Model the fold of this input.
Amino acid sequence: MSGKVAFIVALVLVIAACAPVVPRWRQEARLVYDRVRLDGVDRVFPTEYRTLEDAMLKGDKSANSGNTADAERQYLLVLDKGKRLETEFAAEQQRRAEAARLRADAEKRERERKAAQLAEQIRLAKAREEAEAAAEAAEVARKKAEKARQQREKPLPAYHTVKRGESLPQIASRQDVYNEANLWPLIYRANRDQISDTRHIWPGQVLRIPRNVSREDIQEARRFAQTKPLH
Done:
């Protein structure tokens, strides 16, 4: 019985001795390699990634051919390069994120600057329009004031020559006479010597226009015109 046990033990030892030796760093190297590949490091560091991939392939090839020592060297190289790539990749990702943030900030500031510039242009344009409108209004007011001054300074006529179709109210309403139709009695009273009928005056008649009239005269003329309107 003991002889059979010894035989089985010896057989197991022989089989174990003939079985291929699994490199110590193969699994860990594979984990690092897969992690780097899945993270997309090849898109950022293509040359370094190819070097890592070559080392992994060489390690697997050496392991499959039984060259454990060379396989271990390749797997250790994968571990070293892979971890360095992960560190550099994380730093690069952070750098790119920071660069993107800075670009976004710069674009935002530029948009704000342009918006402020546009707002200022609109404000200035509105201010110019308001200033121009104010200047135009001031010029209109100045011209009106000048016209009124000239009219005040212009001597009013003391006589008026009747034109065809004119009546006493029409003459009184003229701006250079009284500018009010109801003051026609003033003209009538100053020209009774040549006006027998207030409804009939003749072309060519030269009528006196009284200028030195009192407030009472004006009020009396208005009352008279209202009681005896000329229509």
Confidence is low (pLDDT under 50) at residues 7-19. The beta strands are 159-161, 206-208. The first strand starts at residue 159 and ends at 161. The radius of gyration is 58 Å.
